[in-house]
């Protein structure tokens, strides 16, 4: 059996302990030290040297936690004992208090003062946590009715006035109320703009790349349709055959893309084949050079579910958000550093990313304009109404469905021919 006091280099329990309670060091701990230099340091030996040289005794003397004398107020029951803890005050609704606990649970172990400083200093673990940033953007944290103002006002202070002091001690409040007070309430004149700016700095890069990816897909789809001579020849063949079949009153100079969806519903006299089967057979046997449109338009499979209007809306929202934050900083409620909390680093953190966001936004809006002009031109080229919302959002889908149905007709025709 191993001796009770055998050294353990990875032990978390020190063999030397202070006699009195000392101030605590808050580590950003490394749990696995196998591949670090820490495993090479002989902790017990080093601690022994520190003790021999009186360093630990000096540390204990200078970093002891001072005991505070609790003043007691006399009451009719004969007063309180020093072990009684005053009950914390809760002013928030139960639901909102729970929301603080849920969305900030990852910081539950941090003292409330440390958490408040993390937020004010825009620490990395705050800025990297989208759950926290989205919670701070909640309307519930930016709306202050008369009751809220009346309840929290005595605990608040003017952040722009260092000499300002609250009438009541904020330490009396429950943890969620204290966080709400120090951040949302005390910074209420710019909290919403601050939160919006930080969330945007977190998300603009991802949103930009997402929109850029969609725009490039649209560009590729536009080019594939524009460059497909074979598609236009196939449509011409369909028109010619259809006009041949129709009476004089039903002759067409052209037809809208939606017409292609009806081809499979026109059955032949045997009811075994539809018109698209015949179109496929005509192309394969007589105009094989035009069958390449199926491959030329394969890219449409990736964009058929894209909403063009949604892309436009998202691009407009991207532009609105970036311009909104820029305006808040240039002439809005983030424009005067003297009116911000003295510990608030928001302007420092936002300045550089905002410039990058503005450049990306300028490039994006230019790209959107070019892409949509080509899309509208292409729709017009195919006789579609660019002002019709349904037509704009289903243009790709209709062509893609025609390609899929044509391929299906090809397979069915070949199988039938092989069976004969």
TrEMBL record:
Q: Which SUPFAM superfamilies does the entry mention?
A: Formin homology 2 domain (FH2 domain)
One GO CC term of this entry?
cellular bud neck contractile ring
Q: Does the keyword Cell division apply?
A: yes
Q: Name one GO molecular function term.
A: cytoskeletal protein binding
What SMART domains does the record point to? FH2
Q: Which Pfam families match?
A: FH2 (PF02181)
Q: Where is the FH2 domain?
A: 12-420
Under the heading Gene3D superfamilies, the entry gives: 6.10.30.50, Formin, FH2 domain
- Where in the cell? Bud neck; Cell septum
**What name does the UniProt record give this protein?**
Actin-binding FH2
Q: Which organism is it from?
A: Candida tenuis (strain ATCC 10573 / BCRC 21748 / CBS 615 / JCM 9827 / NBRC 10315 / NRRL Y-1498 / VKM Y-70)
């Amino acid at each position: 059996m191993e001796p009770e006091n055998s050294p353990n280099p990875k032990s978390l329990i020190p063999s030397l302990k202070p006699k009195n309670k000392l101030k605590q060091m808050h580590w950003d701990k490394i749990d696995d030290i196998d591949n670090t230099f820490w495993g090479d340091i002989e902790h017990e030996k080093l601690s022994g040297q520190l003790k021999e040289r009186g360093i630990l005794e000096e540390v204990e003397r200078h970093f002891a936690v001072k005991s505070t004398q609790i003043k007691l107020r006399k009451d009719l029951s004969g007063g309180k004992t020093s072990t009684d803890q005053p009950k914390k005050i809760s002013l928030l609704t139960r639901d909102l208090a729970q929301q603080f606990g849920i969305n900030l649970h990852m910081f539950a172990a941090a003292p409330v003062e440390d958490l408040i400083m993390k937020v004010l200093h825009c620490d990395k673990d705050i800025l990297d946590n989208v759950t926290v940033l989205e919670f701070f953007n909640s309307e519930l944290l930016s709306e202050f009715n008369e009751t809220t103002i009346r309840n929290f006002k005595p605990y608040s202070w003017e952040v722009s006035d260092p000499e300002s002091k609250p009438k009541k001690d904020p330490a009396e409040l429950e943890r969620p109320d204290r966080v709400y007070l120090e951040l949302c309430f005390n910074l209420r004149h710019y909290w919403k703009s601050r939160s919006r700016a930080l969330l945007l700095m977190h998300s603009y890069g991802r949103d930009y790349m997402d929109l850029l990816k969609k725009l490039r897909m649209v560009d590729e789809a536009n080019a594939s349709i524009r460059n497909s001579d074979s598609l236009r020849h196939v449509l011409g063949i369909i028109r010619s055959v259809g006009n041949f079949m129709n009476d004089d009153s039903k002759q067409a100079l052209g037809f809208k893309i939606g017409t292609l969806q009806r081809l499979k519903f026109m059955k032949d006299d045997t009811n075994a084949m539809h018109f698209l089967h015949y179109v496929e057979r005509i192309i394969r046997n007589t105009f094989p050079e035009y069958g390449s449109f199926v491959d030329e338009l394969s890219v449409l499979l990736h964009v058929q579910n894209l909403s063009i209007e949604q892309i436009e809306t998202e691009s407009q929202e991207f532009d609105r958000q970036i311009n909104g934050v820029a305006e808040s900083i240039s002439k809005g409620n983030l424009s005067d550093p003297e009116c911000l909390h003295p510990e608030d680093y928001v302007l420092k953190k936002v300045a550089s990313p905002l410039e990058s966001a503005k450049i990306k936004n300028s490039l994006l809006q230019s790209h959107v304009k070019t892409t949509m002009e080509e899309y509208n031109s292409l729709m017009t080229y195919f006789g579609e109404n660019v002002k019709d919302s349904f037509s704009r959002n289903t243009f790709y889908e209709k062509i893609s469905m025609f390609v899929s149905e044509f391929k299906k007709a090809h397979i069915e025709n070949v199988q039938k021919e092989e069976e004969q």
